[in-house]
Amino acid sequence: MTGIPIGVFDSGVGGLTVLRALRSAMPAESFIYLGDTARLPYGTKSAETVVRYSLQCAAALIQRRVRCLVVACNTASASALDALRAHHPALPIIGVIEPGAQAAVAASVSQHIAVIATEGTIGGGAYQTAIHRLNPSARVTSRACSLFVSMAEEGWTEGPIAEAVARRYLDPIFQRNDAPDTLVLGCTHFPVLAAALRAVLPPQVSIVDSAATTAAAVLHQLHGASGAPGALGAVSWLATDGAARFARVGSTFLGETLAAEAVEIIDL
Fold it and tell me: Which CATH code of 3.40.50.1860, 3.40.50.200, 3.40.50.1240, 3.30.565.10 fits the domain covering 97-210?
């Protein structure tokens, strides 16, 4: 652990599931989280625009001195990771896709893996590419589950409604003889729906949470320095619009109450 924080950015609040996992894995570390709420969602933007926005987010965090950059956004990880690493070659930069793909390949016995994500992430094929890079013979079944994003932001994360929607999305994939044995949550919003997903999935299916796997990758990158037990590092909150909504919706993803007055609005 050092006094220099870890920078984390996302297009909005979904990346707070990654921050939550990071804080659990490295409780003594300090973090700066930036949600580019004025320009979300990134998933509907061109790759060139996502690269530009991501470079601007990174610059804002680096200006505040960070020792590692976590791209807590699937779209930005898919489109901008190479550009970010090229612009900042000395800075460790970790996205959410590679760790999730690695965990999925490691967890799957059959190497038939399902990926659920937003339409943009599924359409871009980033998880499919990352999984096949690790195991060219793996079979990947993908499904866009766009309603999950709205449900997560509304706080409808468990109970009959969440489970009914989950069944509608997942039954066509898992209620068949050649079903996958592993499910990748390929959107940072989806971990908050884990209980509803678990309730409708066959018990033998492994769930890979890309937030948790990203936290593990960051911990490994930083030489396993999880900090002193009992200590809790500080978090600075940045957003580009809507402090009140960022705090309200973000509290669901973070698992604790965020105060709007703690959120600094910045202009990129």
Answer: 3.40.50.1860
